Amino acid sequence: MSYRSIYIEDLNESYLGKEVVVAGWIQNYRKLGAIEFLDLRDRTGIIQLSAKDATKIPDARNEYVVSCRGILQKKEVPNPKLPKGDYEIEILEMNILSKADPTPFPVKENTEALEETRLKYRYLDLRRQKMVNYLKVRAKIVQITHQYFDSLKFLEVETPILNLATPEGARDYLVPSRLHHGSFYALPQSPQLFKQLLMVGGIDRYYQIAKCFRDEDLRSDRQPEFTQIDVEMSFLNQEEILTIAEGLFKQYFDKILGIDLKLPLRRISYWDALDTYGSDKPDTRFSLHLENLSHFKNCFFEPFHEKTYFRGIFLPKTIGSVSRKKIDELSLEAKKFHLDTLYSLKIENGQIEGSFAKFLQDELKTELLAMVQEDGQLFFGASLERRDIDFAFGAIRLLLAKEFALIKPNTYDLLWVVDFPMFTKDENGNITAEHHPFTRPKDEDYPYLKSDPERVLAYAYDIILNGYEAGGGTLRIYDPKMQEEIFELLGLSKEEAQARFGWFLEAFRYGAPPHGGFALGLDRLAMVFGGTDNIRDVIAFPKNLQAIDPMSLAPGKASEEALSTLGIKIVK
Ligand code: ASP
After folding, report:
1. Residues 6+ positions from 400 with CB-CB distance below 8 Å
2. Which end of the chain is less enclosed by CB atoms within 10 A, N or C?
3. Binned average pLDDT, 10 residues per bin, the chain of 572 residues
4. What atom in ligand 1 is closest to the CA of residue 230?
5. 168 lines ligand 1 (CB under 6 A)
């Protein structure tokens, strides 16, 4: 007998009364008098098996691996909870292929097991249909990606894993070299430099499903190793590149969600996104815009600085109202963005109430009432830094959306954020690259590079899906002189730039085409399309939030011998 003739999901009317062989794991067993009922699970579903004479079949327990030959029948009482609940298989022959100890947690769809336990026994967790479905969505994305880029003459090229550092701004994972003690490879934070060199090499249109590694603090949407759909192309302008990326999303939406995505996607500028939604990855599935209240600055006794930015958010009464305790919570969130005070006002029946109402001049009250025509609560604050105040209210906006369940499930919103600034300032006030230092400034802003670097915008774009940065990219610098100027602005001397990137920059002296590209986060796409907000769900064997694999407990200690071969001494 062969182990299997058919997957459970493929059983249908046409097999009724016929012999089939199914194989998988026993999910459940129960005896009713002389009749034995078993639920058999394979990767595709669950089917009930029954034996009229239980003595004729071997005793199978949960998670035993069996192969079963039998006749497909209609069930007298269908089980509407299972896709194949209309059918059962009358057992002719059943073989136990492998026995199982009692498992650390019962394998069932609605498991109560803690995530850490599920990760420790991931191979058991993967037996659940829900987990299989996440992996299927992920595989589908990969399949669509290959088809799409192939149809557009993109060439899939692999790039090295053992490299020098890539300047994506995160910490590197280092690999010590055995042959060159004291030297280290860095695992790629992205294939950025190699994909640009492929353009210099004339490859023209490249893509790769690439593993990337960044040693950062982990979050629910971040893993130390993750997968990017990495793309680069020559001789195309920004609009043409965005069109190529959008076309791919159209395929994803169509083939995974069955949604006809309307193109072109909305494009909003970085500063509009910040001032309107308080985020450069705005979740636009609900409204609650930020209000620009900069005229507030004249209404306080204490004069505000000329350059103070005021922002507010208005919560209409029809959505809900926020308790004192909740306001404290919002204030705490705002503090994370250096916003000391969150003011709040109540607007009711044409009256403005709240401890700060007395500071408002009448003129401003009238203006406010005209602005917010409904009753509700207005939260506002002020800051000298535009980003701080915007991000603070962006965070408040998200908390309010959560509190009042403003996001409808199974809704999608996709848009571009474009025109990012070239530079930001770090905590020490130094200029750093907002993306990576190979990003090209916009032609019209190039003249201000030296005189007013902060106003310079870049050919840089992010694609935002339901408030997640699904991907992003830039046009690249291909003129060595411009690259030199950017390095200089970033405080990298000629010598330093040469020492770190000389090998890369030299290529641009031998004829580099105009080029640009983007990278999409495969894991995040799988999360959103799979309907989870936990990135670990869509990775077969992820790390936990401490960057540990709970199954193997990696990272592990290296033996003295291995360390000495590498010329490494551990200092406690
Ligand atoms: N290398 C960039 C990143 O990983 C994406 C790009 O610019 O293509 O974020």
Report:
1. 288, 313, 315, 319, 322, 330, 406
2. C
3. 95 98 96 89 96 87 97 93 94 97 95 96 97 98 98 98 85 96 96 97 98 89 94 98 98 98 98 97 95 75 69 93 91 90 90 83 83 89 89 96 93 96 87 91 95 95 96 97 92 88 93 98 96 96 95 95 95 88
4. 8
5. yes
